[in-house]
């Protein structure tokens, strides 16, 4: 940390002890410890620890890498820190999206967690030293993390909406500093693996052809040697002298466990002794029969080791050549780890990025004149799992907020919340507020919180308080509006009357210099400053529940609070007789004022609780409204889906019927030629009847309609068609059926589907009965829709022929052409195309005749005509589709 407050300490004469106490009073070291838990790299954790220690010791600390949590009062630098977090948040969102699609290049947190410090290794490699496999693996892990960051940033910039995101653009500057060193990464990835035969990093066989060949030779010789040793163990004359039937290894050579007494006998097993057991009863002997093979194995192992060393030296040279890039990469990855930790730390307390400004105006920027923290909570209390009451802390720069109220009511917590949020903003951390906070970056913070009395330093409580006050006055004289002063129980530890007067004078002096002050107090005269100096002083209080006799911890701006000493003492169990005596000793006027303040604060608490309840109800109503809207949208979508499925099913059935009709027509024509027309018609009728029976079996029985069919009907009667759910007028009655006009259409229905309605009021001319139409056969009225009628008749206009409204069947056989036309017409009906064009060409005229005859037979074709000259003349037929 740069300790900008420390530099101001020197100028203002503020003691180093006070500057250190600011951080301790506000809990900054504890907050840094909690943030360190989210750092993934050991380098960043060590760096943060050193930064905090240096600041607490008032020492200048300039690390090689970028600082992890350095505070600054420069708004531009803080905005960059906050924007980098926004950019990384977008990057992590894209990473999560890719992970769900099984296409994620990797996990950033895991990649950062795998990093170790390679500084020393890189320096030694640049000086020609050979690195070990574990050190080369650390370099590889760094390059893998670098590649991941670059790839993820490329992925996020490719996402729509992220390419121009300010946070992503800010993060691009840091990611752009990373150097992937792809050739080195490829060589290391091909040569180094984390889990060798002994569980440690090693050089893999494929690192070079020579190493692969040498290790294969070692494996072959070792297998051969073990087979020979196995045979020797079972050999007569040898097995008897062994301590046990096995062979083992000593100094890299295969040996047998021989009994010491047997080895000394003449004619027993001969060889070289390499070791003995602890008791001396067993000698580990390399038999003469295995010496040659052991020598060959040893030679092969030495050759493999030499080749492995050559590979390590070559990789180390490459690392040494890239030393500058690798050191730069490590610094940037530490910075990215710090950004990642800030982001995850803020997630733990649901932090939001604040809007920051300068505390004092400059050439580049105007001053931000207001602290505005809405719904602020103390971050350490949130992280500790304590239920925290959020408070609004609003204060103009250069004014003083005087917080009064009962002890243990949350006055000091509110004061510390503002101070800690000011430090966090300087460090580019998100703040625990309900909505983005607005605050200036003060250049000096002075605190007087708690009891700093010291026997060793000959400081009483009052003396310690005055030291902090002197430091605050000195800072305010230099920094003016750039100073934030936090005084807990100002001027206590002395005579109350003198202490109150001194406190008033101190607050007037601080605000006169432009410092922003927050103080807690029980002094009545300080509560009156807001009336004497409106705007310069603002009262605030912490609430107290009079019924439950407990504090509410809610900060109320604009209202002074009663100290409620007697009430708090009663709650803590002080005997009632003592309380009665104390109450009798108090001035009656002051006692009454204290009671009135309690009532005012309690009433305001109730109003706030009521408003919060109303807000919750409103939020619940909004939630329910959104839920209902979602359900309606889902129901509508389901209805559309069902309608579309029904339409598709009907279209499929219609196509099947068309195909069946085409086949029947073909069969009839064939039968007509062969003189078997009667048999063909009979088969067609049987097929039609079978289809009707099958359809009837699949149809669900309709529910019985209410009411009874009319006993007698006459043309002109008003009826309701139950199957359609619509009203109509009877046109004709024939037997058990009636022809009914329903809106613009006529339909023939059974009398059982009709229900009588009131007769029409107007008279109507008798309508000549029509011949009964087939059941549910719709008759289309003569009125033509204007959009289609303009292309037909004497004044018809040409239609523009395109791909979507025409079908070209030129050159096709008649049957194939008709099937293609049938599919095309079905598609036209689905897409509500009224006018289409069939291109059949001129040719001999046979295809044109077949097409026009087919179109004339279709019930859903309202009208056809030859094409105009602009449309293709007699080579096309224009069709009006009206299903």
TrEMBL record:
One of the GO BP terms on file: rescue of stalled ribosome
CDD domains: KOW_RPL26
Coiled coil (residue ranges): 604-674
Residue ranges of the region described as Disordered: 688-716
MF terms (GO), sorted A to Z: ATP binding; ATP hydrolysis activity; ATP-dependent DNA damage sensor activity; endonuclease activity; mismatched DNA binding; ribosomal large subunit binding; rRNA binding
Gene3D superfamilies in the record: 3.30.1370.110, P-loop containing nucleotide triphosphate hydrolases
One Pfam family from the record: MSSS
InterPro entries according to UniProt: DNA_mismatch_repair_MutS_C, DNA_mismatch_repair_MutS_core, DNA_mismatch_repair_MutS_sf, MSSS, MutS, MutS2, P-loop_NTPase, Ribosomal_uL24_KOW
Domain Smr residues, every copy: 807-882
Protein family membership: Belongs to the DNA mismatch repair MutS family. MutS2 subfamily.
Biological role: Acts as a ribosome collision sensor, splitting the ribosome into its 2 subunits. Detects stalled/collided 70S ribosomes which it binds and splits by an ATP-hydrolysis driven conformational change. Acts upstream of the ribosome quality control system (RQC), a ribosome-associated complex that mediates the extraction of incompletely synthesized nascent chains from stalled ribosomes and their subsequent degradation. Probably generates substrates for RQC.
Subunit-level organization: Homodimer. Binds to stalled ribosomes, contacting rRNA.
The name this protein goes by in its record: Endonuclease MutS2
Naturally occurring in which organism (per UniProt): Nannocystis exedens
């Amino acid at each position: 940390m740069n300790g900008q407050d420390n530099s101001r300490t020197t100028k203002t004469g503020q003691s180093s002890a006070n500057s250190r106490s600011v951080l301790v009073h506000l809990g900054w070291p504890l907050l840094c410890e909690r943030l360190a838990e989210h750092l993934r790299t050991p380098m960043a954790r060590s760096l943060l620890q050193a930064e905090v220690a240096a600041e607490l010791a008032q020492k200048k600390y300039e690390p090689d890498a970028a600082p992890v949590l350095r505070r600054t009062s420069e708004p531009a630098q803080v905005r960059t820190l906050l924007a980098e977090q926004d950019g990384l948040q977008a990057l992590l969102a894209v990473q999560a999206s890719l992970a769900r699609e099984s296409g994620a290049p990797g996990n950033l947190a895991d990649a950062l967690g795998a990093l170790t410090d390679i500084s020393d290794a890189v320096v030694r490699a640049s000086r020609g030293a050979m690195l070990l496999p574990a050190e080369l693996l650390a370099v590889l892990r760094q390059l893998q993390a670098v590649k991941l960051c670059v790839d993820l940033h490329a992925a996020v910039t490719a996402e729509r909406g992220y390419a121009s995101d300010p946070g992503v653009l800010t993060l691009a500057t840091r990611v752009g500093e990373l150097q992937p060193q792809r050739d080195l990464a490829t060589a290391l990835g091909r040569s180094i693996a984390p889990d060798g035969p002994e569980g440690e990093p090693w050089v893999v066989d494929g690192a070079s052809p020579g190493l692969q060949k040498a290790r294969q030779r070692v494996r072959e010789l070792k297998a051969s040697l073990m087979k020979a040793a196995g045979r020797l163990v079972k050999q007569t004359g040898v097995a008897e002298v062994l301590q046990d039937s096995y062979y083992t290894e000593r100094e890299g050579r295969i040996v047998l466990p021989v009994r010491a007494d047997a080895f000394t006998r003449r004619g027993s097993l001969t060889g070289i002794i390499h070791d003995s057991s602890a008791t001396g009863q067993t000698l580990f002997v390399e038999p003469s029969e295995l010496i040659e093979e052991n020598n060959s194995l040893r030679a092969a192992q030495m050759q493999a080791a030499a080749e492995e060393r050559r590979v390590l030296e070559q990789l180390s040279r490459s690392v040494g050549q890239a030393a500058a890039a690798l050191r730069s990469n490590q610094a940037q990855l530490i910075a990215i780890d710090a950004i990642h930790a800030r982001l995850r730390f803020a997630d733990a307390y649901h932090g939001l990025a604040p809007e920051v400004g300068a505390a004092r105006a400059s050439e580049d920027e105007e001053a931000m004149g207001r602290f505005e923290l809405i719904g602020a909570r103390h971050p350490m209390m949130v992280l500790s799992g304590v239920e925290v009451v959020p408070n609004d802390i609003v204060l103009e720069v250069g004014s003083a907020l005087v917080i009064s109220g009962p002890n243990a009511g949350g006055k000091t917590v509110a004061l510390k919340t503002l101070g800690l949020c000011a430090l966090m903003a300087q460090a580019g951390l998100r703040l625990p507020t309900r909505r983005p906070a607005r605050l200036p970056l003060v250049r000096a913070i002075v605190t007087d919180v708690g009891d700093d009395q010291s026997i060793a330093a000959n400081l009483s409580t009052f003396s310690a308080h005055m030291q902090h006050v002197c430091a605050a006055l000195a800072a305010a004289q230099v920094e003016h509006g750039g100073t934030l002063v936090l005084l807990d129980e100002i001027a206590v530890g002395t005579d109350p009357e003198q202490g109150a007067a001194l406190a008033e004078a101190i607050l007037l002096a601080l605000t006169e210099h432009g410092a922003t002050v927050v103080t807690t107090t029980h002094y009545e005269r300080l509560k009156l400053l807001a009336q004497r100096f409106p705007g310069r002083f603002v009262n605030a209080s912490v609430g107290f529940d009079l019924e439950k006799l407990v504090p509410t911890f809610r900060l109320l701006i604009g209202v002074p609070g009663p100290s409620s000493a007697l009430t708090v003492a009663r709650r803590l169990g002080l005997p009632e007789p003592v309380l009665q005596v104390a109450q009798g000793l108090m001035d009656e006027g002051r006692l009454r004022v204290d009671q009135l303040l309690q009532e005012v604060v309690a009433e305001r608490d109730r109003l706030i609780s009521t408003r919060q309840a109303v807000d919750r109800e409103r939020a619940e109503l909004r939630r329910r409204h959104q839920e209902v809207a979602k359900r309606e949208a889902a129901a509508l979508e389901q209805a559309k889906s069902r309608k579309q499925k029904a339409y598709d099913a009907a279209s499929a059935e219609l196509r099947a019927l068309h195909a069946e009709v085409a086949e029947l027509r073909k069969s009839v024509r064939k039968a007509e030629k062969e003189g078997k027309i009667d048999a063909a018609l009979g088969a067609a009728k049987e097929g039609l009847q079978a289809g009707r029976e099958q359809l009837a079996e699949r149809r669900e029985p309709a529910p019985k309609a209410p009411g009874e069919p009319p006993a007698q009907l006459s043309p002109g009667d008003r009826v309701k068609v139950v199957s359609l759910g619509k009203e109509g007028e009877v046109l004709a009655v024939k037997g058990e059926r009636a022809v009914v006009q329903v809106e613009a259409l006529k339909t023939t229905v059974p009398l059982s589907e009709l229900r009588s309605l009131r007769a029409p009021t107007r008279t109507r001319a008798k309508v000549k009965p029509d011949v009964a139409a087939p059941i549910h056969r719709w008759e289309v009225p003569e009125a033509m829709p204007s959009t289609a009628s303009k292309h037909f008749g004497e004044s018809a206009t040409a239609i523009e022929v395109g791909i979507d409204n025409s079908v070209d069947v030129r050159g096709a056989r008649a049957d194939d052409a008709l099937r293609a036309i049938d599919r095309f017409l079905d598609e036209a009906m689905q897409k509500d195309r009224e006018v289409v064009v069939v291109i059949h060409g001129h040719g001999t005229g046979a295809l044109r005749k077949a097409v026009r005859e087919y179109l004339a037979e279709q019930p859903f074709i309202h009208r056809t005509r030859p094409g105009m000259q602009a449309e293709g003349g007699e080579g096309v037929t224009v069709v009006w589709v009206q299903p």
